[in-house]
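Annotated sample (chain length 224).
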Amino acid sequence: MSHDIADYFHENFTEKSREILIRKGPAYLQNKDSDFSDTSKTYTDGDRSVTRYFNKSLFIRKLKNNESVERKWLLFSPSKNSVFCFSCSLFNSSDLNLCSSSGCSDWKHINHIILAHENNPAHRRSMITYLARSKAVGRVDIDLISQHQKEVDYWKNVLKRIVAVVKFLTSRGLPFRGDNEILGSPNNGNYLGCVELLSEFDPFIADHLKNFGNPGKVFLLKGF
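Output written by the structure step:
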């Protein structure tokens, strides 16, 4: 069997081919040790040309707690010189970059594309489908389950704190918004003011503000 995910698109992923690939798992198709020099593309950046490649480091994601986890779902296709998503290729019919038959080879924006993809609800649904099907065929990828659960737990913790602030303000009939939505501003309103106060004593929310307060504004529910 081929180790290249692009070779399976002509089959339109029949139930038989899906089951075979689920049993094999994404590691069978990752091609992490390929020669990526052929992926080079030249882009214009102002007055100069910049060459970009696919980088092996993209197989690793650094979480907000500085822990590094493997992107087990990310696949490299040697024939297409593109990257694909394992679970979305099998179970997602939407037109996301990493699950089309051509994959994605925009190396200039690849970091943003991959991050946006793994935060996309459609990707998360395909991951859940894959994990459920894995159990059905007798394969359980513990690392993928663990990574998915860490993401779920992270956003649950964010939501728990935000709900507490919302309940506090609504119970007292206080307005949420101020004159602006800038972190550190004395006129940013009760909502951001409470969140900033909470961050002084809660390292978790302080770290969240540091990562998602960009630029000067905070997007507390990014990822939901």
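Annotation: The beta strands are 41-45, 48-52, 60-62, 68-70, 74-77, 82-85.
Annotation: Residues 218-224 have pLDDT under 50 and may be disordered.
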